[in-house]
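Quarterly update from the structural biology core.
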Amino acid sequence: MKFTLRQLEIFVAVSRTGSVSRAANTLFLSQSATSTALGELERQYNAQLFDRAGKSLKINEMGRQILPLAVELLDRAEDINNTLKGHQGYGLMKIGATLTIGNYLATLLVAEFLHLHPDSQIKLEVHNTSAIIQQISNYELDIGLIEGACHHPDIEVEKWMADELVVFCAPDNPLTNADNISMETLIKTPWILRESGSGTRETFDHAFHHYHAQLNIRLELEHTEAIKRAVESGLGIGCISRLALKDAFRRGSLVPIETPELDLKRYFYFLWHKKKFQTPSIREFLLLCRTITEGIERSDQVNLSKINQH
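Predicted structure, tokenized:
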């Protein structure tokens, strides 16, 4: 066997970043050492793994065949390393969550997992749906927890639980006490919405697909908390998950607007790459998520206070 784990690590880093210099930075190596190791790997087997275009490298067909095998081998090597060191945990697991899940569920689930497996390590990244899908497809994340649709051919999608968006406003907004609010009124009212590429925006756009060109979109924001603050200040009305609005509705700082004409239902999903080796930590974390949310009809019904009561 001619290759080394270090060479495979460099190959995977270059495939993820698309350049030797960026890969070197992620691995804390010099650019020359990174380039030399990658070149030596290709020369040893007389096989080109990347197509070169200037300083950028794009993984080719041979590289794509090797990538999932290299990622799996590195994952298994890390498990062996941890076992030999006497660690009882699972090692590092990289989880990506979209904003609603990341802010209101994932952090608590991660904390519970780390309580049960204290020697484990987790890196939790919060991005919108399109970014999480991209990272899963590029083997940068082990698991994705998303609130939007995913149709990527290389990604396995498992339905997790139901969620629902709700239109809401400040308590002093005239729509608060209005009955049978018309679609015309909703269209004309200023909206504060999530950005394109987010699962929340995708669900909203689908619900308004016949009227989207007529909508009065006043402000687009990347964070649900910012949207809530903007709506509270009277800038317009919003539409995000009931899960994110649970506490605000209970306090009365925001109020729901009934919109029976709109279909704002959706699901949360688990994602993983079809070719990625599922480590024991991945399987255990997914089992924890399923167990904690078992029997829950909708995300805002999850008893968050019962998670991580340690």
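The chain has a mean pLDDT of 90.
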